[in-house]
Amino acid sequence: xxxxxxxxxxxxxxxxxxxxxxxxxxxxxxxxxxxxxNGSVHALINKCPHKQGxxxxxxxxxxxxxxxxxxxxxxxxxxxxxxxxxxxxPVIPVKIDGGRIYIDRAATLAxxx
Length: 113
Hints:
By secondary structure, the chain is mainly beta. 4% of the residues lie in helices and 35% in strands. The protein contains one helix and ten strands. A four-stranded antiparallel beta sheet has the order 2-3-4-8, with no helix packed on it. A three-stranded antiparallel beta sheet has the order 1-10-9. Strand 2 (20-23) and strand 3 form a beta hairpin. The model has no long low-confidence stretch (mean pLDDT 93).
């Protein structure tokens, strides 16, 4: 696939189920890529909206991740804090094509200075 809208970040099978990895963005915000138990892949800016904890180091469950600092749960679908907590982290659109993960170029570069 050669589409300028999407960035190829590698094969899905290199991302463990219930795992995460990070993707540095030169001049921008680091991105966390997550894989859920059902195999879906999601991407968020790697900062909890509460105290900027590294979401990539949190526990993935169903369609949310728990921040390792203060246990805030963040939706992988919307980026919204769940429960009583309030806040939101930017979501990066993801698609899978031919067993590879692609993230949206414009959303990835939105925070680049």
